[in-house]
């Protein structure tokens, strides 16, 4: 029996195609954050060991202070938590594509080009594969939200390049006056359209807002 027949895009008499093994380059791209963190941790450890062996304690104090100071502040802890959820959501998005029909017959899944924290959760920029569209991400919105331990998911499609999709993962309400901790404004707002007509887009703050004149 095929998985999730509710949104099955393949013929009913066919099972879900098995996800194929990714190339080494794609695997490196999927785990880029973890690899960079491991390299930074190894460099940090080697630097501390070298300074301790030479009896130079000033580099040791400076490096440990640079690492522990952000963790001791509320802003630093919030930054680490927001980016932790970005890494977790990226892997959960990839897992959802593997467990549903959001992969090609050869087993290739969409590429998560970038993911950044927002005031309500995370926002991922995705490049789809041939045979996959933004409508399929919208159809699997409930599965994506459940996989990412989120409240809901909003999907936006690029107006000129339909292979580019933004998946907005909503975890919480936006607090008044909250500033986005990520770079989601770099995506822009004029070039994306929502797949839900009832979902209102926030105003583009780069343009002038026309206010009605009274009297």
Helices and strands, in order, run as HHHHEEHHEEE
The helical percent reads 25-40%
Q: Mean of the pLDDT scores?
A: 77
Total of helices: 6
Rg, Å, rounded: 22 Å
Reading off the top of the CATH hierarchy, the class of the domain at 74-172 is best stated as Alpha Beta
For the biggest β-sheet, the strand order reads: 1-2-4-3-5
Strand content: 5-15%
Low-confidence stretches: 202-212
Distance between the amino and carboxyl termini: 67 Å
State the major sheet: 5 strands, antiparallel
The CATH architecture category of the domain at 74-172 equals 2-Layer Sandwich
Find the count of extended strands (DSSP E, 2+ residues).
Answer: 5
**Bulk shape:** globular
| SS class | alpha+beta
Look up the CATH topology of the domain at 74-172: Threonyl-tRNA Synthetase, Chain A, domain 2
Describe the structure.
The protein is an alpha+beta fold. Among the domains are: about 25-70; about 75-170, Threonyl-tRNA Synthetase, Chain A, domain 2 (2-Layer Sandwich), CATH 3.30.980.40. Helices cover about 40% and strands about 15% of the residues. It is built from six helices and five strands, in the order ααααββααβββ. The chain has helices spanning about 25-30, 30-55, 55-70, 75-100, 135-140, 140-145, and strands at about 110-115, 120-125, 150-160, 165-170, 190-195. A five-stranded antiparallel beta sheet has the order 1-2-4-3-5. Strand 1 and strand 2 form a beta hairpin. The longest helix is centred in the middle third of the chain and has 26 residues, at about 75-100. The radius of gyration is 22 Å and the shape is globular.
């Amino acid at each position: 029996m095929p998985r999730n027949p509710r949104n099955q895009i393949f013929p009913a008499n066919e099972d879900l195609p098995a996800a194929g093994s990714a190339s080494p380059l794609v695997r490196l791209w999927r785990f880029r954050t973890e690899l960079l963190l491991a390299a930074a941790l190894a460099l940090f450890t080697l630097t501390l060991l070298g300074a301790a062996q030479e009896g130079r304690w000033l580099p040791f104090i400076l490096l440990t202070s640079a690492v522990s100071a952000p963790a001791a502040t509320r802003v630093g802890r919030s930054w680490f938590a927001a980016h932790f959820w970005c890494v977790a959501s990226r892997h959960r998005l990839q897992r959802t594509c593997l467990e549903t029909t959001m992969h090609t017959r050869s087993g290739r899944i969409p590429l998560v080009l970038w993911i950044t924290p927002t005031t309500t959760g995370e926002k991922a920029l995705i490049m789809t594969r041939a045979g996959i569209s933004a409508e399929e991400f919208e159809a699997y919105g409930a599965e994506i939200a459940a996989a990412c331990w989120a409240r809901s998911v909003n999907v936006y499609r690029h107006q000129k390049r339909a292979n580019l999709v933004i998946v907005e993962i909503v975890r919480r309400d936006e607090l008044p006056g909250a500033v986005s901790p990520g770079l989601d404004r770099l995506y822009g707002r004029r070039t994306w359209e929502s797949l839900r007509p009832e979902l209102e887009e926030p105003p583009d703050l780069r343009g002038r807002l026309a206010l009605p004149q009274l009297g």
